[in-house]
Every structure is written in structure tokens, then in C-alpha cells.
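Chain and conformation:
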Amino acid sequence: MDPYNTGNPIGLGPRGHTYRKKRRIRGPLLTILALLLLSSGGWVAFQRIAAAKADTTYSVTSLAESPVVNMEKNRIERWNGVTKKVAYLTFEDGPTALTPAILDQLKKEQVHATFFLVGTEIDLYPDSVKRIVEEGHYPGLHSMTHSRETLYDSKKADTYIKEMHQVQKRIKQLTDKQPLLSRPPFGSSPYLTKSMAKDIAKANLRVWDWSIDSMDWYYKDSAKEVAKTVISRATEPFEIILLHEQPQAVRAIPAIVAGLKKKGYQFAVYDEDLHTPFNFAKHPEL
């Protein structure tokens, strides 16, 4: 190859001034071309991303279709690996002359309770009903007559509903509260039939029995045995404790509270917004 074609094996002519001039032009052109390619590549990438997003299918197309989480029953059952244990103290057959003493003990222990009240007793102790509500306890319904025959022999819910509504009305007049929770005298089983349960639910009433019988009706002279019975029988995370407005039950309150706290229980008052069905007859609607 001649000196003019050094580095040019194809022999396209001498490498002179004209070639060097083309190099100066070609450099900027290559730069512009590279930028164009990069920009076009970015645009292609953008188009592909946009297309992928456009192809994505969303199941929710409006706020109306957004899933709603029901928090009503969303309570913490475990915390740091420890099961939450809750105990509900419930007192039946009041108000009585002992109600103020029960309230004094609960206040001292800083614990709230649920009271299932009898209509005829409300008429005798209206101030105690007011105090129950004022101090943060729940006033439940426990009939007017407390009679097994009157409430259940007909196998219909009419009398049960009527009496519970009569108690409800009395509480409403005294406290402006209209409670929904009732406790059937002698328990729901075997008295509340399936058809009765449906009618009671339609009447907007709920039912709670108990999981622990304190046996205060049996240990009439021993608060120690009443407390011992409650504490020993408390084994489940959710316990409803049956107590009556009796002297032995009043005296047992401090020991019951201390013993259950030692076993890891917290105390709660019934809350209509967090109702959990609990009845011997196992009617879920109640």
C-alpha cells in the first residue's frame, strides 16, 4: 500500500485534508445520533412501563367497592406471646340493701361489674340503680317476677320479652340508659327454645349466662369458700362469674379480685359494642 493509503486496506484514496475535515463533522454527528438513540430508547422503555401499568387489573374501582374491615370483634387476644385473660364479675337479683356495700368494694378495688336487676327491686332501691350507672357499671335486665313458671312454662318468649322491657323502661327512666343485655333467671337452658331465642333477638335483647358459678348460694357462711371456688374454676381466657347480692359474696370480692389478678386476669364491664354470645342453650343470635 502507498503512503497515502496507510491504514486503508480498501484503497479508497489518499488520507488527506478532505478526510480530516470529514472527521471533524462526523464526531458531532455521532454524538447527536447517540443522544437520539438514548432518547428513543428511554421513550420505548417508558412506553413499555406505561403499557404494563395499563395492563394491571385492579379489583377495586371505587371507594364504594373498598373492603371494610369489621373492627367490632377485633380485640387483642395475645400480646407478646401472652394470652389475654378477661373476667366479668356479674351480680344478680339486685338492687338490694347490700348494693351500696358491693359498689364500695368494687370502687376500692378499682373494678367494674355488671348488675342484673329485678324490676320490683329497682322500685325499692332507685338510688342504687343511679349509682351503678354513675360509677361506670352496666345495669343488665333480670325480669320482673324472677319466676320459672311465669317466664318459661308457656314455651313462648312473650312474657320474657315483656318483663325484660319493663325492667329496661325502669332503668331508662332513672338513668337515661336503655340496656339490651338480659340474664334469664335460672339460666337459659333448658328454658329458652330455638323459637323463643329468635323472638328475643327480634326484640333487640341479648342474653348472657355465666361460665363460673361462685356457689355463694351454697357457701352461705363462708366468703373464703366463695372466693376459692371462683379462683380455682377460672381457667379460660374469657370468664363470666356468677355472684348474688349476698353478704358472703360482698366479703369475697377483695379475695376474688386479688386471686384472679394473680392468675393474669383483667376485669371488664359488659360492653354492648363488643358483645360476645354466651348462653347455655348455644343460640348464636343472642
In short: The chain has two domains: 13-53, 83-274.
